[in-house]
Amino acid sequence: MQPFYQLYSQLEPELQEEIEKNATIKTFTTGDIIIRTGQYVKSTMLILEGMVKVFRENEEGDEFLMYYIKPGEACALSLVCASKMEASKIMAKAVEDTTILMVPIQLMDEWMANYKSWYYFVLETYRNRFEELLVLIDHVAFRNMDERLQFYLNRHSEVNQTKKINISHQQIADELNSSREVISRLLKKMEQRGLVSLHRNYIEML
Amino acid sequence: MQPFYQLYSQLEPELQEEIEKNATIKTFTTGDIIIRTGQYVKSTMLILEGMVKVFRENEEGDEFLMYYIKPGEACALSLVCASKMEASKIMAKAVEDTTILMVPIQLMDEWMANYKSWYYFVLETYRNRFEELLVLIDHVAFRNMDERLQFYLNRHSEVNQTKKINISHQQIADELNSSREVISRLLKKMEQRGLVSLHRNYIEML
DNA sequence: TTAAGCTCGTAACTAATGTCACCGATTTAT
DNA sequence: ATAAATCGGTGACATTAGTTACGAGCTTAA
Predict the structure, then answer these.
(1) CA B154, B156, B162, B168: dihedral to nearest 10 degrees?
(2) Chain segment A133-160, per-residue pLDDT in tens
(3) Nearest Cα residue in chain A from B135
(4) Which domains does chain A have, with CATH numbers?
(5) B193-CA/D8-C1' distance, Å
(6) How far is CA B81 from CA A65, A79, B41, B52, B59, in A?
């Protein structure tokens, strides 16, 4: 695991000390739900290791994938929700064994005033998530399912640094809010066009 | 027009003075484009009067409505983009005659450090837009066009405080990224269910 | 080892949405 | 005044996506 000071090197040393002094470390194993929709957010979360997927849920419990959070990044929504002690509007799941620094929210305001690097970090986190949401909106607004599927696979491949995507058609369908049959059909077409090769429980990007 | 200090009463008086001293006022008439996609953002914008619609555009120039900005609110994206002198990722249009305070971005950092109310204002603006985007994503991800249309009409009605919506079917179709015929069809159904009454160039909510 | 439960393929059908063609009515520009 | 453009209604059809149904192979747990 990369050490904290290296992952968050943009934070000034005094702030890094502050964080290490006040934060607690939580670990999650693959599949664990880190925060549920509606749960109260009491901490800001900084990812140290692993990988987190962030979902938006509807009333029926369908899970729509929004974005990934990687080591060195913070959960933008934990930054907002935490500052107001609000209920989480999203659900976050560990997709690998994941280590997270939990920072009590009371410190956020203080740091914001005293550490310029914290303020920049928070703004930058917001900015990045905001832009990711814009791209996501583009896709659901302007694209058909075949393009969205390709985007999904590419992103998965990039984020996990591998051409081999270990995932079932069912799970893809859930995260794109489609159905298994539709995804299988589209994947088959992609295979015929030579874009992927399909196997049980994994897809290979070509 | 409500005076500045009343619209932005959450900002501390010293900051209000700073703003009034440094800002320039720009006026736009109905239909004017306030900022185009790709244009460089050099100022933060605070709405004083009127109404602004914010769109996301695709390569073909289709315009997808994201949200409204009302007096007393700031453009969240002008806050982010401006801080980095980046190209705008959205297009904003005046839907009424609109007056906007333009604040040079150099001052943002300074204010952020010196005025707690500014920092809260920026964070709050982000938070609100973020949540609006989440709701928007819910709609395009989980809802069919009929529900999205109803949401569109309700929001329009609320934002403009009127049951009479002056808009053509074509424009609704554009902003929902659908087609005129589909919208006409769905509106007809809504009329048959007694939800609206249709007229040339306006729709009445019942 | 046997049953249950995933996983994926596929065909047939339905539903939702988009497209094309055409119409008459109204408004706007010249 | 006349032509051009906008507006909306509508039927026919195409495309995309979702649903139902079923089968066959693999994995897991009792």
Answers:
(1) -110
(2) 999 999 999 999 999 999 999 999 999 9
(3) A56
(4) 4-141 (2.60.120.10), 144-205 (1.10.10.10)
(5) 19
(6) 25, 19, 6, 18, 20
